[in-house]
Amino acid sequence: MLLAGDRRNVVDGYRYWQLESIVEDLDERRHGFHVAIENFSHDFNIGSVVRTANAFLAAEIHIVGRRRWNRRGAMVTDRYQHVRYHSDATTLAEWCRAGDLRLIGIDNLPGSVPLETFDLPRNCVLLFGQEGEGLSEQARIACSAVLSIAQFGSTRSINAGAAAAVAMHAWIRRHSFGQQP
Ligand SMILES: C[S@@+](CC[C@H](N)C(=O)[O-])C[C@H]1O[C@@H](n2cnc3c(N)ncnc32)[C@H](O)[C@@H]1O
User: Fold this and answer.
1) Domain that holds residue 3
2) pTM higher than 0.90 for the full model?
3) Among 20, 49, 50, 146, which one is least packed by beta carbons within 10 Å?
4) DSSP E strands: which ranges in 78-171?
5) Is the CB of 143 under 6 A from ligand 1?
């Protein structure tokens, strides 16, 4: 790496660090939110959700459903994250309960609550659905709340990668910038 130059997509502060050392350093300051994604159809958005979860320093990433997921958009950022696998949303919900984490769905389903006015808890798992049906029925039941991102145009939804970035950043604004509880 020293001979060829470090061409990895890492911030300058981590240039030439070994992967394990970077993960160790990130582990010291990870945030309280986790990111979970339903994976039943090899959705191409999953990689981009993972990359954003790394950028905003999510505690962990959870793949719900099939273990094989579409890594293309992740740009290798999954190597710097801890990734857990759950067979379905009910299993994920049990895991959340055991760790005292609130499971919050993100989808613009009927009855969902606006993310813009919801007080996101510090310790939570944000669960995203896939192209097409969005959050599965099982996931909707497993979540303690489902939050929608306000839209104003004609499309039914934004893509899951964009929705994940908006939701994670809402958590960051609430908990990483000294806003009042
Ligand atoms: C392409 S959407 C499909 C589902 C959507 N309910 C629909 O009716 O078309 C895929 C995923 O992106 C996220 N998403 C997209 N738009 C959203 C919005 N306006 N509010 C919250 N989540 C959204 C959700 O996680 C959703 O499960």
Assistant:
1) 1-30
2) yes
3) 20
4) 83-86, 102-106, 113-114, 124-128, 145-148
5) no
Of the CA atoms within 13 Å of residue 69, those in its CB half-sphere come to 29
Q: Nearest C-alpha to atom 23 of ligand 1 is from which residue?
A: 107
Check pocket membership of 129 for ligand 1, CB cut-off 6 A: yes
The residue type found at 2 is L
Residue among 39, 108, 140 whose CB has most ligand 1 atoms within 8 A, to mutate: 108
Tens-digit pLDDT profile for residues 10-52: 999 999 899 999 999 999 999 999 999 999 887 788 999 999 9
- Are both 39 and 4 inside the same structural domain? no
- Nearest residue (CA) to ligand 1, atom 4: 134
Answer positive or negative: Cα dihedral of 167, 170, 146, 142.
positive
Same domain, 42 and 78: yes
**Which domain CATH number covers 48?**
3.40.1280.10
Q: Is the CB–ligand 1 distance for residue 134 below 6 Å? A: yes
Query: Quick check: is 156 in a domain?
Result: yes
Residue 180 lies in a domain: no
Question: In a 10 Å sphere around its CB, with 0-12 CB exposed, 13-18 middle and 19+ buried, how is residue 74 labelled?
Answer: buried
Please check whether residues 8 and 78 belong to one and the same domain.
no
181 pLDDT band (50/70/90 cuts)?
Answer: very low
> How many domains, in total, are found in the chain?
2
